[in-house]
Amino acid sequence: MHSTTVEIRVAGRKILLKMPKNEADIRFVKGITYARWNQSLFVWELPHYPGNLEKLISYFGDRISVIQKEESIQTNNTVKPIISNNEILAVQTPTKRIKLIFGFVPELIKHIKTIPYARWDTKNKWWTIPYSEQFLEEIKREATRLNLVFSYEIETPKKPGIDKLSSKDVAFYKTCPKTYLDKLAELRYSVNTVKTYVPLFEEFINHFPKEDLDSLNDHHVTEFSRFLVTERKVSTSYQNQAINAIKFYFEKVLGGKRKLYFVERPRQEQSLPTVCSVEEIQQILSTIKNLKHKAILSTIYSAGLRISELINLPIHAIDSDRMQIHIENAKGNKDRYTILSTKLLELLRLYFKKERPHYWLFEGMGSTKAKPIQYSDRSIQQILKKALSQTKITKHVTVHTLRHSFATHLLENGTDLRYIQSLLGHSNSKTTEVYTHITTKGFNQIISPLDKLDI
Questions:
Q1: May I ask the CATH class of domain 6-70?
Q2: Of 97, 306, 404, 409, which is the active-site residue?
Q3: Which of 97, 207, 232, 403 is flagged as catalytic?
Q4: Is 403 noted as a catalytic residue in this protein?
Q5: What pTM did the predictor assign?
Q6: Is 331 an annotated catalytic residue?
Q7: Model pLDDT for residues 112-159, shown as the tens digit of each residue
Q8: Residue 195 appears among annotated catalytic residues
Q9: What family, per the record (predicted)?
Q10: Fold annotation for 76-154
Q11: 257 included as an active-site residue
Q12: pLDDT tens across 214-260, in order?
C-alpha cells in the first residue's frame, strides 16, 4: 500500500516535495512557477520564493508528515579573515577583482587609490581593485616596501542565482510567436540578434505561465526585469538584452510607443579585460601547424575582430590594394574598415591557394560553391583551446582576448586612441579608454611639463 503522506524539505533556495502520485496534486504543483519533476531524486523541485512554502502547507495541510528546513551554509568566501597589522591578504574573486584585506596602513591606501577602478567596500571593510598581473605585482612591491607579509588566495567560484527556465521545466512551454519572427526578418536583424532575442523573449512569456501574450503589459516587464536582477542574478548586459528583446515586441511588432524600463541594480564592480602579452600571442600562434587554423586566429588578432565578424567575413572583404579589411554589418548594424597586416596577407594567400574557399573567407566542412557553409564559432574556440594547451599560459584566454590584445598592443606602440576606437568599431570612446588602464608601458618616458620650467 502506497504512502499517502507528504514530505517537504527546504534546502537553501529550493523546496523538495515528496508526495504520492495524484493527478489533482500534480496539477496544483505544476501551477507553481518553475516547479519541475527531479527524475534522479524522485521529488518535485520548486524555487523557495516568498509564499511558495506557505502555499504547499495550506494545500496539503494534515497530509504533511515532515517539514524539514536546512539552513544554507555560509562559505568561507563570505567571511572576512582575521589579519594581523603586519599582513596583507589578496584574494582573487571569480568576478575578476582582487580583494585587499589589511589593517590601517595609510601609505598602502594612498597607493591603492591610484589604481583605476579601486573601490572601498564599506560593508565588508576591504579594498577591491580590478584583477591584472600588473596591479598584483604593484601591491606585492608595496607590501615588501612597507614590511608587510603578503599572501595570495583564489576564491572558489559559487553559482549565482537560479537557473534559466527551459522547455523541459514547463508543462506547456510557450514558443516565440510567428509575428515576432516575421518582424525580425522584415527589419533584417542579424542572425546573432535573432539567436539572442528569441530565447530571451520566450523566457519572458514563460515567466507568466497563466497569462496570455495579449495580457502582458508594462507591469509584467518591470516584474520580470526585477526577477532577473534579484533572483536570477544575471549580468547588466543580459538584463539589457532581455529588455531590448521585450521592447522589440511591444514597439516593433505591436507598434507601441518607446518606453524606458528601469530596475535599480546593485553597484557593479568594474573589471579589466584579460590581455595577452606580445610574447604570449607569439607562443599561441607558433604552436599552430594547421595553415587554416593559424590564418583564422591571426586574422582575429591582427585586425581586432570579434568572432562573429570573422565568421561573417566574405572573401571580397580583403582589400589588398588599400591594405584594409571591410567589416560589413557588424555589431549595431555598422560597417567599418580595419587594417590588413602584411604578414597576414602573405598567410592568407598561402591559405587561399591550398583551401580555395568559395564565398566566405573561412568555410566549414562540406562547403560548396552552390552552398557555402560558414565556419563555426565553436570550432574557432577549440582551435584556441588546443593551442593554449601546448603553451605555459595560465591566464583565462578566450577568442575575444585576442581582440583586447590587439587594441592594447596598438596603444603600447603609440597608436592614437581615436584610431583604435575606429578600428574596433566602438561607438563610445569610453569603451576604448579602458585599454589605457591595462598598460603602463611608456609611462616612465612621459615628461611632466613642470620639468621643462626653469624654477
A1: alpha beta
A2: 306
A3: 403
A4: yes
A5: 0.52
A6: yes
A7: 998 888 888 887 788 999 888 888 889 999 999 999 988 888 877 666
A8: no
A9: Belongs to the 'phage' integrase family.
A10: Alpha-Beta Plaits (3.30.70)
A11: no
A12: 899 888 988 898 888 888 888 878 888 999 999 999 999 998 888 77
